[in-house]
Amino acid sequence: MRKWLLLAVAIASEVSASLSLKAALDDSRFYVVVAIGYVTSFSLLAVVLRLGMPLGVAYGIWSALGVAFTAVLSSAIFGEPFTGLMGVGVAVIIAGVLLVELGSHRAQHAPPSQHAADAA
Asked: How far apart are the first and last CA of the chain?
């Protein structure tokens, strides 16, 4: 449970940093938020990996949800366009994240002989 909470904070930090990067174009004080957000995000991602979450799962969820949340929030905050096609893309990203997570659980619970068969 702790891994997931830390990953959620890492995602929120990354999204905050990305949104602040856009805001910093008009107000350079936001660069402080950008730096803190990215350092926090990568540091927490490293902690999550150290706690045992597989890299493919952690990075996949971190990056995919970061993209999805940034797209939605940049539309709400900055008035950037968010089309139906973009919405489909966000849905596909979320579906992909779920598939990676489900695949990870399946691989962890498969007998050792199954891992060799999956690799072939």
From this structure: 33
**3-state secondary structure string across the chain:** CHHHHHHHHHHHHHHHHHHHHHHHCCCCCHHHHHHHHHHHHHHHHHHHHHCCCCHHHHHHHHHHHHHHHHHHHHHHHHCCCCCHHHHHHHHHHHHHHHHHHHHHHHHHHCCHHHHHHHHC
Are 68 and 90 a contacting pair, CB within 8 Å?
A: yes
10 Å Cβ neighbour count for 120?
4
Per-residue confidence band for 96, with pLDDT thresholds at 50, 70 and 90: confident
**Rounded distance, CA 80 to CA 28, Å?**
20
As a whole number of angstroms, the distance between CA 102 and CA 91 comes to 16
User: Percent of the chain at pLDDT above 90?
Assistant: 68
Q: What is the pLDDT of residue 118?
A: 59
